[in-house]
Amino acid sequence: MVRVSGGTTVQVLLGSLGSISGLVPTLPDRHPKLWEIQGVLRGPSPPSVTEGATFHRVLPPYFVTDQKVRYSRNIKTVRKTCQQEACISSGSGFAHLDMEAPSEGRPGQPASGALLGGDAGKPNTGEDSGTSPLPSALSSEQAQLLQAVVDPCTRFFEEVNNAVANEELGSIEEETVEGLKSMGCFGLQVPEELGGIGLTNTQYARMVEVVGMHDLGVAIALGAHQSIGFKGILLFGNKSQKEKYLPRLASGEAYAAYCLTEPSSGSDAASIQTVAELSPCGGFYTLNGSKIWISNGGTAEVFTVFAKTRIKNITTGEETDKMSAFIVERAFGGVSSGPPEQKMGIQCSNTAEVHFEDVKVPAENLLGGLGKGFQVAMHILNNGRFGMAAAMAGTMRGVLLKAVDHAADRQQFGKAIGCFGAVQEKLAHMAMLLYVTEAMAYVLSANMDMKLPDYKLEAAISKIFASEAAWTVADEGIQILGGMGYMKESGLEKVMRDLRIFRIFEGTNEILRLFVALSGMEASQAIFGGQGGPCGQPTQDKQRPLRIGVPTGQTLQGLVHPELEDCAALVRDPAEAQQGGQLPLGILQFHLRRVADAAIDTYAMAVALSRASRTLFLGQPTAQHEKLLCQAWCQQVRQISATIQLSLEKSTSGTTMAWMNEHLPRQNP
């Protein structure tokens, strides 16, 4: 439930959610008409909430070209044009592309790039440069290139791709596949010299958001191909491996797949049974085993496969099994696939078992080093998770559009249902979830582009938050549409089925929550010296951190726009729920889940504050609306975090812990 201080009505902007470094457009309209929804406002300054508030949605700018040119436009040509037109400053090298406020009869247009001050990767308070801490990793040239490639891709998915036909066919229509190839969508992050487009993580996130808005099945097929399928070659491949495989994969001539999950090893990836044995001559490995639920498993020609290998300790002579990664081609022989799985959703993406029987894999196809397979596997997944958050943001945007359309059109009791508070509250909550998800996706991708060494925790949080937020938005969207939302005709039924898998694959949300919590526990152990009660009492001694020199009471005050200082003070609350003691690693998982939720809430507040603060510093036309979104979100999280802290305090009280120690089975650390 969305509430703000004093019980005032939540005023939320749906039409102008603002932009992150020029990446996220205003909520687009495909058919201009009036919105007449009380409390859902648009404009440079928010008017009071009045019944019948009226405003226009606007069309974003598109290329005015014939259809053939629009869809087959060579992105390399676009890049050259952008290089010629870009105004590269000698400043920090980072720029954003603002969107000018739309005027009557004219859609929003890109404004000139505004340089961000400060060093890349460092928080920027905006005091000197007029910007907020939200990171930006796009140069003027990159921003213009992004604007140039997103528009035709959007048109393509609106006018060529048919999500319903893809689902009925059980595969992606050939016309769509050829169109994706012509736009370079199979090699978005492959360097230009190897046949790809060479997009940054931030640019890639924006493209993924477009696909996620229109067809999650296609998004999975493309993501399984490049976000994880050949990502290992991109990240860990040597020069010869990259030159051999990436050009063919980037063109779409061959699909790639990531093969980790087995019948006996799901979340426990280290327990795989597939084996790769080195030949006596040392020239090849013999691969045997099976993988299940492999996206692109029946269509891929190139596989990143993880298998156990025997490794001998040079010092002791002892042999142990360690995971290694291999590049495997179907053409090697011995590779077979099962029939396509019959899934709940994402039905146009191929999912199948893959079997390896005496496959001879050349020794030079070892990827990332002998015994390094687990690190390779986890790094690929961590690196690819930012794309999932971006795709979820696109899906949420599409659902929100449908919900707002229906709320504006559907008449009950003599007025549009969007005039009623219950519907407004749902729309407000959906808008906030979209706003925060977008912020997470682009903060993460920008930090990756700025080469921050460790982002796996933020990536895990983004995946958890985005997949659950998208599910909530889809559910509320169906509820707003009522009976129509339950019908296939609305398209939301398909979205709901497609979304369900995102809380499961690439690490279940339960496993990732444990990872988030245990990451904090490791830091806590280092700080507190491993001390604590038999089951841990994280909130019992709140003065102990001060006694050992650990600061408390830290907030984001002074780092955000002055109008958001009150919200910045709230970030401390969920963070402090984790301080004051240590939770041993063997504690019950429902405690760890609550600790993880507190961390997720803290991060969600931080990115929302950063995004809204930057918009305020820059004086963008959506600033006041984003401020309202941020304030409402922080107030909601404050209430949730208070509940989490109370839950932790009660569950770790002496009486409760004594009962659990007596009656519940002990867990191994």
Automatic annotation (TrEMBL):
<feature type="domain" description="Acyl-CoA oxidase/dehydrogenase middle">
    <location>
        <begin position="257"/>
        <end position="359"/>
    </location>
</feature>
<dbReference type="Pfam" id="PF21343">
    <property type="entry name" value="ACAD9-ACADV_C"/>
</dbReference>
<dbReference type="Pfam" id="PF02771">
    <property type="entry name" value="Acyl-CoA_dh_N"/>
</dbReference>
<keyword id="KW-0809">Transit peptide</keyword>
<dbReference type="InterPro" id="IPR049448">
    <property type="entry name" value="ACAD9/ACADV-like_C"/>
</dbReference>
<dbReference type="Pfam" id="PF00441">
    <property type="entry name" value="Acyl-CoA_dh_1"/>
</dbReference>
<keyword id="KW-0443">Lipid metabolism</keyword>
<dbReference type="GO" id="GO:0006631">
    <property type="term" value="P:fatty acid metabolic process"/>
</dbReference>
<dbReference type="InterPro" id="IPR009100">
    <property type="entry name" value="AcylCoA_DH/oxidase_NM_dom_sf"/>
</dbReference>
<keyword id="KW-0702">S-nitrosylation</keyword>
<comment type="similarity">
    <text>Belongs to the acyl-CoA dehydrogenase family.</text>
</comment>
<keyword id="KW-0276">Fatty acid metabolism</keyword>
<dbReference type="InterPro" id="IPR037069">
    <property type="entry name" value="AcylCoA_DH/ox_N_sf"/>
</dbReference>
<comment type="subunit">
    <text>Homodimer. Homodimerizes after import into the mitochondrion.</text>
</comment>
<keyword id="KW-0496">Mitochondrion</keyword>
<keyword id="KW-0274">FAD</keyword>
<feature type="domain" description="Acyl-CoA dehydrogenase/oxidase C-terminal">
    <location>
        <begin position="371"/>
        <end position="517"/>
    </location>
</feature>
<dbReference type="InterPro" id="IPR046373">
    <property type="entry name" value="Acyl-CoA_Oxase/DH_mid-dom_sf"/>
</dbReference>
<keyword id="KW-0007">Acetylation</keyword>
<dbReference type="Pfam" id="PF02770">
    <property type="entry name" value="Acyl-CoA_dh_M"/>
</dbReference>
<keyword id="KW-0560">Oxidoreductase</keyword>
<comment type="function">
    <text>Very long-chain specific acyl-CoA dehydrogenase is one of the acyl-CoA dehydrogenases that catalyze the first step of mitochondrial fatty acid beta-oxidation, an aerobic process breaking down fatty acids into acetyl-CoA and allowing the production of energy from fats.</text>
</comment>
<dbReference type="InterPro" id="IPR009075">
    <property type="entry name" value="AcylCo_DH/oxidase_C"/>
</dbReference>
<dbReference type="GO" id="GO:0000062">
    <property type="term" value="F:fatty-acyl-CoA binding"/>
</dbReference>
<dbReference type="GO" id="GO:0050660">
    <property type="term" value="F:flavin adenine dinucleotide binding"/>
</dbReference>
<dbReference type="InterPro" id="IPR006091">
    <property type="entry name" value="Acyl-CoA_Oxase/DH_mid-dom"/>
</dbReference>
<dbReference type="InterPro" id="IPR006089">
    <property type="entry name" value="Acyl-CoA_DH_CS"/>
</dbReference>
<feature type="domain" description="ACAD9/ACADV-like C-terminal">
    <location>
        <begin position="589"/>
        <end position="640"/>
    </location>
</feature>
<feature type="compositionally biased region" description="Polar residues">
    <location>
        <begin position="126"/>
        <end position="138"/>
    </location>
</feature>
<comment type="pathway">
    <text>Lipid metabolism; mitochondrial fatty acid beta-oxidation.</text>
</comment>
<protein>
    <recommendedName>
        <fullName>Very long-chain specific acyl-CoA dehydrogenase, mitochondrial</fullName>
        <ecNumber>1.3.8.9</ecNumber>
    </recommendedName>
</protein>
<dbReference type="InterPro" id="IPR013786">
    <property type="entry name" value="AcylCoA_DH/ox_N"/>
</dbReference>
<dbReference type="GO" id="GO:0017099">
    <property type="term" value="F:very-long-chain fatty acyl-CoA dehydrogenase activity"/>
</dbReference>
<feature type="region of interest" description="Disordered">
    <location>
        <begin position="98"/>
        <end position="138"/>
    </location>
</feature>
<keyword id="KW-0472">Membrane</keyword>
<feature type="domain" description="Acyl-CoA dehydrogenase/oxidase N-terminal">
    <location>
        <begin position="142"/>
        <end position="253"/>
    </location>
</feature>
<dbReference type="InterPro" id="IPR036250">
    <property type="entry name" value="AcylCo_DH-like_C"/>
</dbReference>
<keyword id="KW-0597">Phosphoprotein</keyword>
<keyword id="KW-0999">Mitochondrion inner membrane</keyword>
<keyword id="KW-0285">Flavoprotein</keyword>
<dbReference type="GO" id="GO:0005743">
    <property type="term" value="C:mitochondrial inner membrane"/>
</dbReference>
